Amino acid sequence: MARYVDINEERLSRLHEGLELLETVDREAMHSLDLYLYGISNNPQLLDAAREAIADSEELEEQDVQLSEIAVAIPLGADTIYALMGSGIRAKREDFAYIGGAGEGVRSMSFAFGHFKPQITLSAFSKLALASSDSWIDDFLRQEGSGQQAKITPAVHRNQEATQPAPVAPANPQPAPAQAMPKTTSLRAILDDFLD
Asked: What are the start-end ranges of the H helices in the chain?
């Protein structure tokens, strides 16, 4: 069984009609059905919201996080499809995934961590898929995304005042003046003096 299937706006519109019909028969049964829409996005507003969520959860400055694309998982129902095809839905608790840098692999997070909540519409996505769970958003991004990694580089932020630097020795130290060697007297000379 496939983890997700590709879908386009036309097929999503037909799915809307089917879900709307099923919801009129048994709305409660539809709530227990886990359907998710996956989408690959490089929309600036969605990237800003994701950047803010990552920065807040990692305790970084927002400018320390650079993203080029994310994958979003949206819980799906007839009303959600209708809104996505129109004015959109607010990014609140939806999950997103991004490819971390330095061998971290795909990382998942929620828009709930950020304060900025942009509108999500179908036009924000370059690739769409339908899934029965949000569990495979990582696979979707790995297989359908461009593979561009996020750049997360925390800048050094001082939380204490700098201390004074230690004094540096001069580059060419002057040699110490030579000390006169103490005159050594042999044991024989001491004995000769004593016996005289």
From this structure: 9-25, 27-32, 44-58, 78-85, 137-144, 187-195
